[in-house]
Amino acid sequence: MIRRLRWWLIAIAVMCVLPLFVPLGFPVSVIRLLVMGSYLAIFAMSWDMMSGHTGYISFGHPFLIGLAGYVTAFLSHQEGFQPPHIVLPLAVTLPLGVAAAVGGGMLFFFPSMRVRGPYFALVSLAFMEILHRLIIAVRPEFTGGDRGLPNLPSVVMGAIPNYYLSLGLMFATAIGLWYVSRSNVGNVLKAIRMDEDVVEASGISTYRFKRFAFLLSAVTAGLGGVFYTHYLASINPRRAFSAILLLDIIISAVIGGMGTIVGPMFGGYFLTFILEYLRPYLFGQWRLLAYALVAIFMVIYKPKGFYGIAQDVASWFQTRKRRSAQYGY
Amino acid sequence: MEQILIQGALLSGLYALIAMGFTMIFGVGRVLNLAHAGYVMVAGYSYFWATYMMGLPIVAGFAIAIAVSTGLAVGTYLGWVRRFLNDPTIVFVSTFIFALILEHVMTLAFFRENINVPPIVVGMTQVMGCPVSNNLVAAVIASWACIGAVLFFVRKTHMGRAMRALAMDRRGAIISGINPDMVNLTTWAISGALAGVAGVFWGSYTFLVPSLWVLPLIMSFAIVVIGGLGSIEGTLAAAHIVGFMETATVLAINDKLRSVPGLVIMIIVLLARPKGLFGR
User: Fold this and answer.
1) Could you tell me whether strands B124-127 and B130-133 are parallel, antiparallel, or unpaired per DSSP bridges?
2) What is the CATH number that goes with domain A2-277?
3) B256 in contact with chain A, both atoms CB, cutoff 8 A
4) Which of B30, B77, B263, B264 has the most A C-beta neighbours within 10 Å, making it the best mutation to test the interface with A?
């Protein structure tokens, strides 16, 4: 148990110690970046649980995230132009937001897992677009229309408390999903990705496994969505349902390594940091172009992502060790 | 009412052009090219660049736009898609990123402002008692000419028959001596050219903006799914369903709900009849 969790414990310890160096001159901007990275990592892992494992590529993850974010945002904010309604405390709205993501997902999103391959991707993209349009056009006095809902209350104030909050959330989901991924359930899901008909023919109900993966994914996306919304303290349709967020999620999962949980988690942080640290060298659009180019080369030449690279390196070292033990060179 | 019919006919024609290229690629190669709508956007910009920034004649602008989009399509295929025909996920993700790259490049070249492309054909005519710009009429005629040409090509020529054979039964087609690589390449080139024509007219129909590819992409998805992936006739019919519904929504209900009816139909079709209306 401890042996398997060893690397996780080291990672948690390192990440927890980091803010202690802030008084000694460790930049707070890095802490802020780590918060953003944690949320992107949560989204990427959520995507990975559903799409990376089962092969049902979802282009509609912002649907789940945005739904959770909008529900909690609408119920918890007070000032502004909206019609008067009961303002609920965050302790109530956060679970309601997650419930909305799970419920909405099960109601609309999950039935489309009946169709496979590209069809599923198309339907999920369509759901995202429909929700986007509906939020803009139907009852803008409730949803804020194009402008969204500003001035939301925060869960905790300040960079460092937010850091610990996002970190706790990230590690809890990461370890949970990692265990599922390594269990027999995870193996069944990966088998579905390889050949669903064979899994079905060997007497396993793929429907139930897909439902389980989807539920986990929706819960994770909902959790990430509500806390992310309150961290940013505002939500608007252009950011919540953009192709940019969708691509960030997919690219961080893909460059990290699909179907591994650890890979997408790393990918989330990597993407956040690379985008930020390229800022002084390449400005504006050049930065986005560079990152898209890196992503496409990664997809084409290293489809297994960083996780695959790490495995290659590890196996190279092992072979060398074995060879030197055997032949002495 | 007349407005809905005329605008709808135009929009349907453009959608049909875009979606046909999309569906042909899927039919022959079993992969989806998400960068397809990106070619449409780039073609619109190259037409604008050739005619209004370089001052070339309209015909040259057309030729350049079509050449650019065909080149991009062939480049995508030869560049990496050919190696991943048996891994649709990689093609899916990589072409989506490629569309984003095209958007960034166009933003760098032409900035993020809306560019109004002057009409290709000037003047107005009266159709059914309401004024229509000649530009719209030209777009409808051009798109139907292209559709007719593609249908003729697919039905009557040797290469067209090879395409249909590959779409029906890949292994059988290969056994009977069809070179799938060559057919694939031709299909990508044709779909690129169709995207080029669509792009020129799309630019003059609305305006050019680097994020122009997202909406056409989603809508051509919907059309292709409604009609049945890989079926050209189905795509034509579905393009008209979606095009007219969208125009009616925009003109009669709310501009912001533009894409919703088509997507709702798509979801219903997909859950009730996943093969699509004309799918096999």
Assistant:
1) antiparallel
2) 1.10.3470
3) yes
4) B263
